[in-house]
Amino acid sequence: MAAKTSNPMEEAAEMSFGLFGMFHHRERQTSAKEKPGSVCCPICRETSEKFEPDETIEYLVKVLQEMRHQSRCSGAESCLTEATLQCPCCDKRFCQSHHAAQLTALKDSGTALLKDLDSLLFEPDQNGDEKLKQLQSAMSESVEIESLLAEQLHRKFADFREQIGLCQSQLQSPLVPDEAERSVLLLDRAVLRQLTSNGASARLARLLPEAKSRAKRAQERWPERRLALQFDAVKMQYDFEGLLAQHASSAVFQSPYEGLPPMLTRVRQQNLSQKPWDIGILSNLEGIVCCDGAIKLRSSVGDSAGSAKELTGPLLVINAQCFPTKMLHVTDLEVKQVATITPKFNGEGMPGRMHIYNQRQLILTSDASRHRVTVFNLEGRTVTSFGEKGSEPRQFHSPLGLSAFGGQMFVVDAKNLRVQVFDMDNDYSCLALIKHDGFSNGLQSVLATDSSVFVVDRENSKMFVFNKANRQSVAPPLKLECQPFDVVADDHGNALVTLVREAKVLAVNRCGTKLKTFEFKETAEGRQQMPDDFPMMMMMPMLMANGCPPRMFHGLAFESGSRRLYIADLMRSCVVVAQL
């Protein structure tokens, strides 16, 4: 219409029949007001150079298109056949042929899914035969290695016992075996004893040079026998156990957390008179008794052995916040106190963080305010204590979490942004420093396993995983939901981390991959009244609707026999026992 110079609507109005009834067109004269190319609106008859859309006609066109589309088959764009059937699920309409095709495709999908479910539920692993062969091969190899090791160990220990026998016979024989020389030395000894007692200085002065010369010749000929016995049965046992544990963890399948419910099942909740901070599992009770309510070594009990009570484990060791009782509280697995341990610090001190090293029956503690690390035995006697404020090896700036494995002790040196590694068999000398660019001064805890080292950063809410052998990071830092506090190992070398304010426990494997997050669901049974000594300044912003303070998980312990978690709830002054 715009291409024509005349107005089509007016042209239509000016059309008429001629004299002989034939249709003809009368040319219209363009007025001065009209411009060539203008278009006349079919409704208002006004001319315009602008093209405005007509909403009414646009709506009608859409309605017609939808009606045409609804009546057509939606099976294919090219299908113009009228739809006669409608799907009850998606409301699409199909013709007979496309409807049959849809039914066939649906049936094929159901058959494929059924096959997958049958394979998942009833058929063995596709690579099961190969895996079984590998396991059988590993079993036969382990038997061969066991026999070979037994033979080698038997031969080594036979040679060792033979050497011990020779040393014993030599020690039982005289140091100077020559009888004549021995007689002369015995005579010198008798004369020297007589002269020194009688005060005969003249004869003593004459005899002394000759006696010295004879004694010196004898010492040169028969030197002092010294033992160089490089045999530590305890260390050998623990090192061998660590080697076997490392082999076992890499040779068998690790138990996954898949299939476990995401909610922690609370077994019990034991209220305490103090606020629990750290929890440890004491499982090695060999030679340990309870005497007068305190943990003692059987070898040190002495006359009071009759009143000593045998302890059956495992047990819990609880360290309260700020160490108010100056004792560590030992309880059974029902969180009932059975004994105490009183650490004997050299002067003032308190265990800010604590770790139970069961292999050697030691308690490792850190004192952040005094920048020291102290190691106790289970009686509370100090084995070693070292550290001062500084940045050199064996110096600390706010040491916190500790862990030990295979004769090595790992200590979080928070303000120095590092973890120090110490050799427990070499006077706790510093072996290495673990550092990372992502470390902050909020480093909180460390966990050492057979092959990995886990470090949690409370300020950045991150976890770092390192290779224990080369101390290199094995994965990017794992971002956590909220601030972590403690980290312990499960029975498969994975790490379990407490998330403080979320009342959650996170499982992470040695590759730094999140396995599962266990939440703790509050129940009416688990609620308790507000402690009388709870600070009102803290209580007001943190009360929940039920009148209780929120849970705040800190210390964590895992008991492998029952697969239970023991969680220190600081705000509610209780220990929560949860079943995995």
UniProtKB/TrEMBL annotation:
One of the record's GO molecular function terms: ubiquitin protein ligase activity
UniProt keyword terms in alphabetical order: Repeat
Keyword Transit peptide applies: no
SUPFAM superfamilies recorded: YWTD domain (SSF63825)
GO biological process, one term: protein polyubiquitination
InterPro entries: 6-blade_b-propeller_TolB-like, NHL_repeat, TRIM-NHL_E3_ligases
NHL repeats: 383-425
Transmembrane region(s): none
Superkingdom of origin: Eukaryota
Protein name: RING-type domain-containing protein
Species in which this protein is naturally found: Macrostomum lignano
